[in-house]
């Protein structure tokens, strides 16, 4: 799991995104749909044009879940348990897609943070987002 150093790095960097965090969610989703069009099939009921209200509001929800995760780095399984059930039993999102979204979130974080997105921060976020994806995938069978 994440080392104590990685945990504090993630918390510090996440704090820095506070004022533009909601946009990070929407931008990551738009990037997901553009770069990996197959992911759009999960959102047939959404207006997927750039900056649409649905992308923005869904982006806020995803980011809020990540904020919960950042606060519970020691206990991700429990913190994301409901979300994990939702994805496994109701939404049935193929877990490969979690990696694709993680990728897009990283690119958007890098765009927002510029030089502050150092290789160390990148490595820590990669581990963090993989851990979130693992929890969201753990109830599939
Ligand atoms: Zn998901 C939903 C989160 C990934 C698909 N999500 C959701 C929500 C949240 C989330 C928070 C909301 C819930 C409620 O409402 O309750 N996700 C999340 C996260 C992640 C994810 C954190 C990672 C990181 N998802 C994902 C993917 C996909 C998805 C990858 C595909 C592609 N989700 C989804 C859907 C939904 C969700 C489809 C539903 C939407 C609506 O609204 O309808």
UniProtKB/TrEMBL annotation:
The lineage of its organism: Eukaryota, Metazoa, Chordata, Craniata, Vertebrata. PROSITE patterns: GLOBIN. The gene is alpha-D. It comes from Cuculus canorus (Common cuckoo). GO terms for biological process: hydrogen peroxide catabolic process. GO terms for cellular component: blood microparticle; haptoglobin-hemoglobin complex; hemoglobin complex. Keywords: Heme, Iron, Metal-binding, Oxygen transport, Transport. This is Alpha D globin. Residues 1-141 form the Globin domain. PANTHER family: HEMOGLOBIN FAMILY MEMBER, HEMOGLOBIN SUBUNIT ZETA.
